[in-house]
């Protein structure tokens, strides 16, 4: 973002924190380069193994070495993607801590905000700028990082992490950008409430972590599951690939019962009697197929954006009450 194109408080903010912005930008570019280089370095390993003429059960030293080399490359790329996903999970809390601390908390703690307010900048405009600048950077940068991560994960040479893996789910789709915006809003609210740099940063990280953990715990219930019913003693139906298993149990007509209802006792006679007494007709399995990724993402994104709007509204309310 060129400071020449900015005016007023926005330009001041960029100039004040240009070093931190340059460091953050350098880290983001380094992350993109690392991911792209990892995919490039591992590209073709599966094809190389296929062209070697070896098969999976071939135990010749040449084929064993080729197979181990392919697996080691895939495992290495898998680890890179997992650590990149963890970084994307931590990113919203880091952005929120930056807003809570150096951007807002420090000015409130030191009293330098009075200088801006004395130069025809109202408190509301001051806070709006403090929110708008990091938000603008976020909605540009975070989708790029998420798209690069998603592209790297689709590499045919990757021992792929499943779409429902915690790191993958938090690093792809629309959720990373919404989560970063929530971090900004929470950071502003915490700074206005406590007016202390380190305390505001700590509160932001803790509150965001609690929200992220809660949403992760209820994620599978944000969209209706797909249910497969299998008649009793029949071969269970094969679930589609990359499936998030949610739960299962016994079917008594149209009623769903826990699997422990009859299978707690290992004695076959008692199990058969229990099945008959409860009129069990089959078993059921609840799961989310890969096609549920976007519905789950969009519902989760909507919840996060609502929380963001609430946090922003509370931040302006706190500002008005204390500096009306």
What does this structure look like?
The chain is flat and about 85 Å long. The chain has 2 domains: 3-222 and 294-323, no CATH class; 226-291, no CATH class. 68% of the residues lie in helices and 8% in strands. Helix 3 (45-51) runs antiparallel to helix 4 (61-110), helix 6 packs antiparallel against helix 8 (175-194) and helix 8 packs parallel to helix 12 (293-323). It has 324 residues and is α+β, with helices and mostly antiparallel strands. The model has no long low-confidence stretch (mean pLDDT 83). The two termini are 32 Å apart.
Count of β-strands: 4
Class from helix and strand fractions: alpha+beta
Shape: flat
Whole-number count of domains: 2
User: Averaged pLDDT, please?
Assistant: 83
State the order of secondary-structure elements, H for helix, E for strand. HHHHHHHHHEEEHHEH
* Low-pLDDT windows of residues: none
Binned strand content: 5-15%
In order across it, which strands form the biggest sheet? 1-4-2-3
Alpha carbon gyration radius: 26 Å
Number of helices: 12
Helix content: 55-70%
Distance between the termini: 32 Å
Biggest β-sheet description: 4 strands, antiparallel
What attributes characterize this protein structure?
single chain, 324 residues, alpha+beta, 12 helices, 68% helix
Task: Offer a quick outline of the entry.
The protein is an alpha+beta fold. The chain contains twelve helices and four strands, in the order αααααααααβββααβα.
